[in-house]
Design the sequence.
């Protein structure tokens, strides 16, 4: 066709013909007018300047080849129905279209097709053009799934009720190609053409078919003998017997059943494996459940029968004996392992035991193959060889005994003593010197001994590190130097240290060697006197008279003894006794004489109120022949005695008296009130 009418889409009332100007490079309008692969469309006009001579002879200028009209095998068709066929005519694009007064038709016939498949119209009006929007509205329903019939009087502006256009859709979908530039310009100028080329889909897509699970077996069964391990693996094939994609997974709850793989896509094979392990004799049931999204789950029952073994279990151990070696007092030897296995049939349920305290085993029982850890603990075992047995027992199987040997060897002995010597000194007859300590470092058991009677050890034995107390008895040693040895022995190794004791002769002196006292009966006690002791040891002092007291009665080395007289317990006249001082077998004596005179004058009794202080030691009595002139006390009253008898008072004399109190520290109070007494 000429370029002049390439972009025209219209209907002419004067042509009684549907005119469609086709551009070969714009295939998207095919759904409206394309013919089948055997159709040829002829466009006719009654007043064309060239007219065909027969209904079957079409000028090729008026024929749009099917290769230019369609790219699909099942396009939509526009069907015209008319009882009398008309002669196709050529439409020259240089001749203006004129309205026709006669009836004409557009036959559409395929090669070899005797039945007319065209669209015919009879028009009564002239000069009528159909808008493209009305044409599109008429043709769009024809693109759906059901054929649509529309009165051509509306389509072509004719009032004739006999003219109709029928759009019959084919079953197959159309195929399109990408439009070119001219088509895009045409569609931009005529929006309805775009909807005609790509009409909306009035029918929603059918739902996708769902997957369905298919399995190769509806049930699986296994059998095994007890203790025989695994029966042969079986397979289960999963397939998709529905549509879409089957993403499946398989699961099982029994511990004795495993699946590999447990998931897959569409078709897959699962290896089903049984591990009978230590299952008891009996029947076990479970199920494999296969699931997939969008599909109904499938359950495959699984049955396992465990039968009694035809061959009983047999215990086999490796190694068949164990030997341990340890050093006395050292760490435990390394743990050793005994492997246990079943060389027979069935299930081997075993237990292990030992018969000595120095051997430990763990674990003490098990099922099937296993191992035992054996540990030797020599502890305090002395060097030597020790034997034991580990016994493995099992039901329906003969017990197996594993001999165990432990050899304990003596350690390489080490003994050290500190210090290397001891020195003691003492006074004959004096106190024993203080104990001294010997430190022992040893890696084994040891014993200690002394070579002298005056030296004793405590303790005399031990294990490992320790200490020894060395004690000296002076009474068993001689004056001068005494020597001894301490010997410590461990594992055949001995160590010694030397001990020296020096005993000095005792020395003791007491001065003066005698004491003399004079007193009047009933008068104050005479003043105390002292004895000086010189000694190189301890000493003790004693006397045999009740009227004489010593303080202190014992001491060490140099010291002083105070001797006091109490005339109240003495007799009138001469009283004598001896003070004995002893140190280190040496004795020294001091003679004591007391002359107690009878009273030759008057006497007076003094009394006073007691002192209430807790540290009171006694009272002192003062006497004078004139008021307030007191010298030394005439008497000392010890304790809380509150009276005193003053004797020897001369007739014709007035005496004045006061009393003071003193405490144990020697502090003395002020004078009491003064009293006087005249003797006539």
Sequence:
């Amino acid at each position: 066709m000429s370029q002049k009418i390439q972009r025209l889409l219209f209907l002419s009332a004067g042509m009684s013909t549907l005119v469609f100007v086709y551009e070969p490079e714009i295939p998207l309008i095919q759904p409206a007018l394309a013919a089948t692969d055997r159709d040829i469309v002829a466009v006719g006009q009654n007043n064309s300047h060239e007219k065909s001579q027969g209904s079957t002879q079409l000028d090729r200028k008026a024929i749009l080849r099917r290769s230019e009209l369609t790219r699909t095998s099942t396009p939509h068709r526009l069907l015209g129905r008319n009882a009398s066929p008309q002669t196709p005519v050529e439409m020259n694009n240089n001749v203006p279209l004129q309205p026709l007064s006669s009836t004409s038709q557009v036959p559409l016939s395929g090669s070899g097709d005797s039945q007319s498949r065209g669209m015919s119209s009879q028009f009564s009006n002239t000069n009528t053009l159909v808008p493209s929007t009305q044409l599109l509205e008429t043709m769009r329903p024809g693109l759906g799934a059901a054929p649509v019939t529309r009165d051509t009087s509306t389509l072509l502006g004719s009032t004739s009720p006999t003219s109709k256009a029928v759009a019959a859709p084919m079953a197959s979908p159309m195929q399109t190609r990408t439009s070119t530039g001219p088509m895009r310009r045409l569609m931009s100028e005529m929006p309805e053409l775009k909807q005609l080329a790509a009409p909306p889909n009035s029918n929603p897509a059918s739902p996708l078919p769902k997957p369905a699970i298919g399995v190769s077996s509806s049930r699986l069964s296994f059998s095994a003998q007890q203790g025989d391990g695994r029966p042969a693996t079986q397979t289960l094939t999963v397939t998709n017997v529905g549509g879409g994609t089957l993403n499946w997974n398989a699961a099982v709850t029994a511990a004795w059943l495993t699946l590999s793989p447990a998931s897959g896509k569409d078709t897959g094979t699962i290896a089903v494996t049984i591990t009978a392990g230590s299952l008891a004799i009996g029947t076990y049931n479970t199920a494999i459940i296969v699931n997939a999204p969008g599909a109904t789950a499938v359950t495959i029952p699984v049955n396992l029968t465990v039968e009694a073994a035809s061959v009983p279990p047999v215990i086999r151990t490796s190694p068949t004996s164990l030997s341990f070696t340890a050093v006395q007092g050292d760490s435990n030897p390394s743990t050793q392992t005994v492997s246990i296995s079943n060389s027979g049939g069935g299930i081997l349920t075993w237990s292990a035991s030992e018969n000595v305290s120095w051997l430990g085993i763990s674990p003490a029982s098990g099922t099937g193959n296993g191992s035992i850890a054996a540990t030797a603990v020599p502890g305090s075992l002395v060097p030597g060889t020790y034997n034991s047995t580990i016994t493995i027992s099992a039901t329906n199987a003969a017990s197996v005994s594993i001999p165990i040997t432990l050899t304990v060897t003596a350690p390489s002995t080490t003994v050290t003593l500190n210090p290397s010597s001891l020195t003691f000194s003492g006074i004959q007859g004096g106190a024993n010197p203080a104990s001294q300590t010997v430190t022992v470092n040893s890696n084994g058991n040891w014993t200690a001994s002394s070579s002298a009677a005056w030296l004793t050890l405590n303790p005399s034995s031990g294990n490992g590190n320790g200490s020894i107390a060395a004690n000296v008895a002076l009474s068993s040693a001689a004056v001068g130097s005494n020597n001894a040895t301490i010997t410590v022995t461990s594992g055949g190794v001995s160590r010694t240290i030397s001990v020296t004791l020096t005993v000095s002769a005792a020395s003791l002196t007491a001065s003066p060697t005698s004491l003399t006292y004079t007193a009047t009966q009933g008068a104050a006690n005479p003043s105390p006197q002292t004895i000086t002791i010189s000694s190189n040891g301890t000493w003790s002092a004693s006397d045999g008279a009740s009227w004489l007291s010593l303080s202190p009665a014992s001491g060490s080395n140099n010291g002083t003894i105070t001797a006091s007289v109490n005339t109240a317990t003495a007799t009138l006249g001469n009283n004598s006794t001896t003070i004995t001082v002893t140190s280190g077998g040496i004795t020294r004596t001091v003679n004591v004489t007391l002359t107690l005179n009878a009273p030759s004058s008057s006497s007076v009794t003094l009394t006073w109120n007691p002192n209430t202080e807790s540290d009171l030691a006694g009272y002192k009595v003062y006497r004078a022949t004139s008021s307030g002139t007191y010298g030394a006390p005439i008497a000392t009253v010890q304790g809380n005695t509150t009276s005193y008898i003053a004797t020897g008072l001369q007739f014709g004399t007035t005496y004045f008296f006061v009393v003071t109190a003193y405490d144990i520290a020697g502090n003395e109070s002020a004078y009491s009130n003064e009293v006087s007494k005249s003797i006539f």
Remarks:
- The chain has six domains: 3-197, 213-307, 315-409, 415-504, 508-597, 602-679.
- The chain is about 5% helix and 45% strand.
- Residues 181-189 form the longest helix (9 residues).
- Confidence is low (pLDDT under 50) at residues 1-179.
